[in-house]
Specification:
This protein has 118 residues and is mainly α. The chain has a domain of 81 residues: Winged helix-like DNA-binding domain superfamily/Winged helix DNA-binding domain (Arc Repressor Mutant, subunit A). 55% of the residues lie in helices and 8% in strands. A three-stranded antiparallel β-sheet has the order 1-3-2. The N terminus is likely disordered.
Length: 118
Amino acid sequence: MPPTEGSLVEPEIDKRFRLLASKERRYLLGCLIATDEWVSIDTIVEHIAARTGESRERVYTQLHHCHFPRLRTAGLVEFDSESRRLTYTGGQWTKTLLEVSERAGDRAYLQPVPSEDG
């Protein structure tokens, strides 16, 4: 049976699970999904550093060199280099996987960051 619109075929599901294997990527995607707007890199770094206990410098380095490129390549985030902001572009599937992970008692990933407008 062919996949229905909005469904993922097995290779795509495998790719999503590999991307979500990193807690830093889960925190990053969770805060972008929950915030539902463009978020500055600095705000994301602060959010993830607070959640993981890692230094801001280490979090920034990991995000910049490892996590951002993988998520951009997968089409899950868009990056505006001029404003240094990211937004989530991946649709419902990743949100659903994070919700399942939360319900399984893993951690709370879908946490919005404070608004940068106010």
